[in-house]
Amino acid sequence: MAPLLSVEQVSKSFAGNQVLKEVSFTVEPGEVLALVGENGAGKSTVLSLVTGLLAPDSGRVVHDGAPVPRAWSPHRARAAGIGSVHQELSLNPHQSVAENVFLGAWPSRRGLVRTRDLVARARPLLERVGLDVDPRTRAGRLPLGRQQLVELAKALAGEPRLLILDEATSALDEDQVGAVFRVVRELRDQGGSVILVSHRMAELFAVSDRLTVLKDGAVMATRERERTDHDDIVRLMVGRELSDLFPEKAAADPVADPVAPLLQARDLTVPRACSSVDLDLVPGRILGLGGLQGQGQREVLRALFGLDRHTGQITLDGRRVRLSSPREAIRHRIAYVPEDRKTEGVHTARSVRDNLALPSLRTLAPANRLTTVSRTAETRLVADLTDRLRIKAASPAQEARRLSGGNQQKVALAKWLPTDPRVLLLAEPTRGIDIGTKREIYHLLRRLADDGLAVLVTSGDTMELVGLCDEVAVLYEGRVVDRLTGSALTEERLVRASVMGTATESDEQPEEQADDPSGEKTVLLAEELVNDIDDSDRPDPSGSVTHA
Amino acid sequence: MSGLVSVAALRGSRPVWAFGVLAVTWLAAILFAHGFDSVANFRYLVQTASFLGIVAVGQTLVVMMSGIDLSVSGVVALSAVVCAKVASGTGGGATGITVALLLSALVGAVNAGGVVWLRVPPMVMTLATGTILSGALLVYTNGSPSSAHVPLLDSLANDRLLGVPWAFVLWLGVAAVAFWLLHLSRTGRYAFALGAGHDAARASGVPLGATAFTAYVSCALLAGVAGLVLLGFTGTSSLTMGNPYQLLSIASVVLGGTSILGGRGHLLGTVGGALLLTLLTALLTSWNLSEGVRQVVLGILIIGLLLVYARERRT
Q1: Which residue of A88, A370, A382 to mutate against B (max B Cβ within 10 Å)?
Q2: I want to staple A475 with a disulfide (CB 3.0 to 4.6 A). Which of A113, A226, A295, B212 is the partner?
Q3: Which residue from A296, A278, A295 is spatially nearest to A287, judged by alpha carbons?
Q4: What is the pTM for the complete model shown?
């Protein structure tokens, strides 16, 4: 059978920098192809050629037996049956879910949109992606993971024969990923094709038929799933073993050798997000915040950085502090690397230099706000940081939007280092980042902790929390339900606490699960729980709270 | 100052385009239009460009941090009318100037306060203060603004320093100070950061309020200065004397290569933009076009030039 899509010898350069070198691959009907590679390997670029966002310098894209026309565009690609979902959301937050799903193709009569039709037609699509929400809900009110599923429903509304999922699962929890994979399998069984990009190896192996590995803009190999394994793929991606992904943990045992906490939060409550959270941030240690997507992890961090209004007591070095704005938090030497790096972490339209210098302007122009910024000191600071974190930029004047995601994240982190922080807050520090950069960031965080920083990390990646953190507090509906440390900090216990919302007392399996080694029950249970949450809209955990 | 002017960075930069188009237009005017080849004409052009230019420099500061000031026409009139009234009454010239500038700065502070504290969108806030100003001036003057002869303003607007109009010297001085503020000082960095992205600026500890206050107060103050120079130039004040400077100041900023969304651009581009717009106006006038036709053509020219080099890029 002729391939549905074949990418033939395409090359692409940006400003003299070749990002694709004669890349070729094919996607057959009824096949799921995984595109694997580190960030900057060229995955997104090659997909942009397929969806019509970019045109190749040479080579061609053949879709459905014919080369795509010169005037290929996202709109035409969609009309030709290519649907895509990206990590970045493209929903209009002020419109309803249904309006977003059918954006641009609303059923109408005499120029008036027929809302009832719209809602009725959206329902089955939402059901298909496992989303139990009222189609009339405003999209912006949904948590990130669910918005991502709305994106998927939107792509399915175009009835694609080729579905492209570019990091589309990175904001999803495991159940939501399961729903996405159901759609993928369903599509494949009906003869459709899927191209899947993800940094989570397990996901790729769970659904793909073949894996094409890209490295530095060239295809390294294409492998049948049955004839390869994780290590093989990772070797092709990076040319090194996975074993040293995570650094050694802190040596000190907190029970035998207690250290006074640097930052203590007591009864921390953010309306509609988290309630009565107690946290101790200890110098030299990395604390993780785990749980399913959207259980208040993000808001805890934002509150500690003065971004979200909160109640409760926060003490720093034993002294009560009020963190009512980021400026105050920064004054107390708290630094924050946000989840949304393109709107909060870095200024994408500004240069690497400007981004790195921004939090340090106070020292680069010390007297007052009208002081001239010292160009030499700035250059030295920027050179030092790019060097230290190995930020790959063409020059310090390069705009941050031209950097790969991993390098952007390095900038978002690096810019705080000259401000000499004592507390470092990071939300999803490696989301959508290649494995090599992940490793670098893990090791950097551990080095910073060893230098005496107190680090707090949220992550939806269980392996990351277990591999990186000294202790993990599990949030469920805005409350800490379990704290795992030492040998109790395992992926299994973390997942169990996350989906059950209760502390796990021991390492042993509960009786009824003893003969269920596949863990299917846990997943089922999780689905039920998530459905429960769906029914009650958003939980409002602040209702039952009293605070000082 | 290596980063200040680097040849590579200048190529393809929109502020450079502004000066390029300016040079070409000026050359064409000298070659093909009547009367543009004399020193007197050149002098007159830069003198009249100064009025617009001073307002536009202030506007640049505001636009750069992703704001906009639609009260400048009101402030120009406010400053001229108040100064004329005080000076022609009992106060005298110096008092008139002081009161006018203080009031101008106050308007800027009100604009900033509304934008920062009440979170009114800049366009709405400044349009409202501008409207309030015109109304208040009508009440204050009873509809008949006064004329006044203030010697200091008279010489500032009409006299020359070594053959160069004082107004132009003043404009260049103002531009130099604003250049330093925007491109060299810490406040300038904050303004760019704010313009490039509010959330990222906030999460990086940029003082949002202080930066907005600096920009809006400077802008209003400069509009006030322009009003005073205009008062000196015409010897009389009017309620509508600021009107031409409202949209032309914004057009100067954008033709000068600054992004209307903020965060990108250069102050010197605005100087080129103001000169270019003044030159185009003079050219159209020299062709004896009626006021109405002139405005239509000028508007079309502005759109055309924007299309050529100052479009917003797609994201």
Answers
A1: A370
A2: A295
A3: A278
A4: 0.75
